């Protein structure tokens, strides 16, 4: 018999009280672990989705606004590019120090050209990159699979009166309409989209690039660093992070985290309070027992130790079981929160057990101190 | 006989909401090592207060309590706890065994804070249980024992550190006369083995076993008489 065993035995004497004390910690840690684990998985899922969502860095030629006027008469202005982008620039972009962070580098080429008698803007993009570069496009018909095929923006399709299976003629070449885009509200609604090589040949500009879109994986790195490195590799280009995408990523992830922390804090506080109340009640109930222990020679430290061991056992068991249940719940519900591949995230469980132990012991401090300070006389009077 | 326990002008006042009650007034006496003293008196005479002061469970409002030459009021709380563990064995009227522990475990409770192997502690407990006639009942819970057996477990618990002094508060108060006799026989045996026994009691049977009787009345020592104990009898 030692204090540890004495504490353990006492738990079985008051099973319902022990269960009630542990219930607060169990629920608190279970909720914390479930939310933390779910948040971590959602964070990763959101990150993956946002990374898949498209580019977050745009590379265009550096331009300067040139004002034109004569005396008091303003004739407007024009954009003058310092230099043009070229297909070879893709190699320079992919050669930056943080190149492993670049998920995709997609060159775009825009030109105005004839399309079955109408002057429309043609957008050239590598056929294999279209799905990654514009994942939100919805197509009636098929995507571009090979050279000689085009997609029509919704307005362009109306203007040309063409649909999937139709033909668009430009510069003496016939292009088969593979599909028509659903309206996007963007400029591509009025464009003809084709493979990069096809548009370059229509424009007679074999290596032409209007701009690059870069998708960078920036979970652990600031996108500004990548922007700076690309800017260094392409001095004549204007490299800018699409802040909206970056910020929305952070905002979405932070929102999940804040929600998890908030709910967990409330549940944990309630759990801590339950421990405090039940242990305080237990001390009141066991005044006589504490008196007997003091009478047989228990020091104050031994009384403290006894109560801390009791709560320690409860905290360990309830927080460990809460953590396990929390992990299981997170695993089960993750698919309903947009997590495609649910996984076990162990770090919140370990943290949860540590917090549960801390919470239990913290809630025990005031009642344990009260018990230890209890005069043996007070206890003996109740004998 | 040298004074093993000495009380000098011990008074005890209990205060409550501005009113105070005197439990003991200038009580002075000495007890030699190996005496068997019964403390008697009406209800409220101060018997239990005297016992808790002698046991170092509370400090008197005034006066000095010396045990083995140590002034109990000079010891800090933990020092008193150590002193109690080493010097005093308490036996209560209602036994006060821990109901969730077996007889053996109850006897082992005072050894809980000590560093010793479980086997050593259990061995000591079994020896003591055997000495009070409870061999074979080590694994029983208090609820599975009779009143007399529970009191025997409580006596074994009090003896676990082999204290020189036993303080008993009405140890036969909850027992029938036959069982009470058996318990008193146990005390007689312990007294004969050299223990100093102080017992608060109303049981006249004790007067034939004890060596001295102290009668309290209204917090004062009303009578302090030597008795003819079996040891002293021809």
Please characterize this protein's 3D structure:
Chain A is an alpha+beta fold and 383 residues long. Chain A contains twelve helices and 14 strands. In chain A, the strands form three sheets. In chain A, strands 1, 5, 6, 7, 8, 9, 10, 11, 13 and 14 form a ten-stranded mixed sheet that branches. Chain A has a two-stranded antiparallel sheet with strand order 2-3. In chain A, a hairpin with a 2-residue loop joins strand 9 and strand 10. In chain A, helix 1 packs across helix 10. Chain A is elongated, with a radius of gyration of 34 Å. With 234 residues, chain B is α/β, with parallel strands linked by helices. Chain B is 29% helix and 29% strand. In chain B, the strands form two sheets. A six-stranded mixed sheet of chain B has the order 6-7-8-3-9-10, with helices on both faces. In chain B, strand 4 and strand 5 form a beta hairpin. In chain B, helix 5 packs parallel to helix 6. The two termini of chain B are 20 Å apart. At the A-B interface, helix 1, helix 9, helix 10 and helix 12 of A face helix 2 and helix 4 of B.
Strand order of the largest sheet of chain B: 6-7-8-3-9-10
User: Could you say which overall geometry of chain A the principal axes of the C-alpha atoms support?
Assistant: elongated
Number of strands of chain B: 10
> Which regions of chain A are unreliable across 5 or more consecutive residues at pLDDT < 50?
none
- Binned strand content of chain A: 15-25%
Which structural class best describes the helix and strand composition of chain B?
A: alpha/beta
Main β-sheet of chain A: number of strands, strand sense, barrel status? Answer: 10 strands, mixed
- C-alpha Rg of chain A (nearest Å): 34 Å
- The oligomerization state is heterodimer
Q: What average pLDDT do the residues of chain A reach?
A: 83
Strand-residue fraction of chain B? Answer: 25-35%
Number of helices of chain A: 12
SSE string of chain B, helix = H, strand = E? EEEHEEHEHHHEHEEE
Euclidean distance between termini CA atoms of chain A: 24 Å
The sequence of SSEs of chain A as H and E is HHEEEEHEEHEEHEEEHEEHEHHHHH
Helical amount of chain B: 25-40%
For the largest beta-sheet of chain B, the strand count, sense and barrel status come to: 6 strands, mixed
Provide the low-confidence segments of chain B as ranges: 229-234
The radius of gyration computed from the alpha-carbon positions of chain B, rounded to a whole number of angstroms, is 18 Å
Shape estimate of chain B: globular
